[in-house]
Amino acid sequence: MSQDPTVPRTPVLRLLIAEDVDLVAEAFEALLSVEPAFEVVGRVGRGDVVARTVLDLSADVVVMDIDMPGATGIEATSHVKQVAPDCKVLLLTALPGSGHVHRALAAGADGYLVKSTTGARLLDAIKKVAAGGTVIDPDLAADALRVGPCPLTDREVEILTPVSQGATTEETAGVLFLSAGTVRNYLSNAMTRLGVSTRMQAVSLATERGWL
User: Fold this and answer.
1) C-alpha neighbours within 13 Å on the C-beta side of residue 154
2) Contact 72, 91 (CB under 8 A)
3) What is the widest separation between alpha-carbon atoms in the chain?
4) Are residues 161 and 201 located together in one domain of the fold?
5) pLDDT in 10s for each residue of the chain, 212 residues
6) What CATH number corresponds to the domain at position 99?
7) CA distance 73 to 62
């Protein structure tokens, strides 16, 4: 039966999936494509192409993993909001730590959920952020209030991350295209902000509080 032309059509939300694991991205696309109110217009596997793709595809909502190559989900969110401020961003994390919540919201994220959420909750969250609301996983929100915002800068977090994986100062410098002296300065600043005396103490504290 054709739709009555006098009844206004409900706008279809154009969704972009940003996820670097193909199997997960395919699962998201299969789930979201079943919802009549959604149209998955594209998928990307790198954070540094999200903002450009949003413009190219006129996406209304980005469903994005926080841990992306090229640029983190938080960095990509900031880029999206700069070029397409009306586009909504729903970030997803596989990690239960709450440390990124404050930074995600500061970057302009409209929602932040754990990947273990149910399909129904994900669909509902997309609709809510598209309507102008903010959706934060309640457990993550409670932890974020308890722990407080991360005192580290984005660059300090970026430098502590390879250190936490066992990289030396020189290896970290090579990966981030910085001098070893610059890396040492950032590590010193991070230790001061966290009130610890060694880089491994900084890594341990930042990891414990979900900031890495």
Assistant:
1) 12
2) no
3) 71
4) yes
5) 445 555 455 679 999 999 999 999 999 999 999 999 999 999 999 999 999 999 999 999 999 999 888 988 989 999 999 999 999 999 998 876 556 787 888 889 999 998 888 999 999 999 999 999 999 987 777 676 666 777 888 889 889 989 988 999 999 999 889 999 999 999 999 999 999 999 999 998 888 777 77
6) 3.40.50.2300
7) 10
- Please name the residues in contact with 204: beta carbons below 8 A apart, sequence gap of 6 or more: none
Which single residue is written with the structure tokens 């890396």?
Answer: 183
Specify the amino acid at residue 140: L
| 95 token code pair | 């990690």
47 & 109 share domain: yes
Indicate the residue among 99, 122, 147 that finishes a domain.
147
Q: For residues 88 and 163, state if they share a domain.
A: no
**CATH number of the domain encompassing residue 193:** 1.10.10.10
